[in-house]
């Protein structure tokens, strides 16, 4: 199975300037992008699982 690289963030500092409620804007953007990242990660994991299953079926082990 292909390993998806793992990332550990030790320190993250984000600075931005927006009109309105900074916290709400950050939360909305963060949630939007973390959902997109999570979908890509889940899709890659699912592809890896399918590939591994197909490989086992081809070997006669499935």
How is this structure best summarized?
This protein has 62 residues and is mostly helical.
What does this structure look like?
The structure is a single chain. By secondary structure, the protein is an all-alpha fold. The chain is 60% helix and 0% strand. The protein is built from one helix and no strands. The radius of gyration is 19 Å and the shape is elongated.
List its traits:
62 residues, mainly alpha, 60% helix, elongated
The major pleated sheet works out as: none
Shape: elongated
Report low-confidence residues grouped into runs of 5 or more. Answer: none
Report the count of strand segments: 0
Architecture blueprint of SSEs:
Elements: H1 22-58
């Amino acid at each position: 199975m292909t390993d998806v690289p793992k990332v550990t963030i030790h320190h993250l500092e984000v600075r931005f300037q927006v009109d309105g409620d900074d916290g709400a804007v950050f939360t909305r953007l963060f949630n939007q992008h973390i959902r997109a990242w999570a979908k890509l990660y889940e899709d890659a994991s699912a592809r890896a699982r399918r590939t591994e299953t197909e490989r086992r079926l081809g070997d006669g082990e499935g």
